[in-house]
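Researcher: Let's do a round of design. I'm pasting the structure tokens now; please hold your answer until I've finished.
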């Protein structure tokens, strides 16, 4: 692969992302009856999503994918609590990005850990995806993933931690192309 310009990435960059704990993201929603607290799978997702702020600093057609996650869920957060994840870029090794991540509610730190992402060419990634989709045939097209064959749409609202940056909404919309 050719070299890509990563000059926009700097060690120490950080971002925050906040959610409100609800029934939909509770532990009970993923099967733990009577657990009206933020579910670990949702907490991990928020912490990981806080890391994708780097996409705006990557060249066109590049994005990151998560490859490893090590997280400790330290304390429960009840329904109605606001939980804020903070992601700090701590290492850049070629295309591998390592983050320190943590999350807090209004009372205490509720999670901490490390997340690793890898920078990829989205054209190659989605070409491989489409080949797999075609190979899987009707299993994917008739399942619960309707719409993936025509478009993949990801919306991530990222609240930047730098003063003046405000709320940014990133839309990544990749349509089926003819290059595969």
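Researcher: That's everything. Go ahead.
Model: Designed sequence:
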């Amino acid at each position: 692969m050719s070299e890509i310009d990563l000059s926009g990435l700097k060690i120490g960059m950080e971002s925050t992302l906040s959610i409100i704990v609800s029934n939909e993201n509770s532990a009970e929603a993923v099967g733990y009856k009577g657990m009206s607290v933020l579910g670990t799978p949702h907490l991990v997702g928020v912490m990981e999503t806080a890391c994708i702020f780097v996409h705006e600093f990557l060249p066109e057609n590049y994005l990151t994918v998560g490859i490893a996650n090590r997280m400790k869920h330290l304390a429960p957060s009840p329904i109605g609590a606001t939980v804020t994840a903070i992601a700090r870029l701590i290492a850049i090794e070629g295309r591998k990005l390592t983050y320190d991540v943590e999350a807090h509610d209004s009372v205490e730190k509720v999670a901490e850990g490390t997340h690793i992402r890898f920078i990829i060419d989205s054209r190659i990634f989605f070409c491989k995806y489409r080949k797999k989709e075609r190979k899987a045939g009707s299993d994917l097209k008739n399942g619960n993933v309707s719409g993936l064959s025509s478009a993949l749409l990801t919306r991530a609202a990222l609240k930047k931690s730098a003063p003046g940056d405000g709320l940014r909404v990133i839309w990544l919309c990749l349509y089926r192309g003819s290059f595969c």
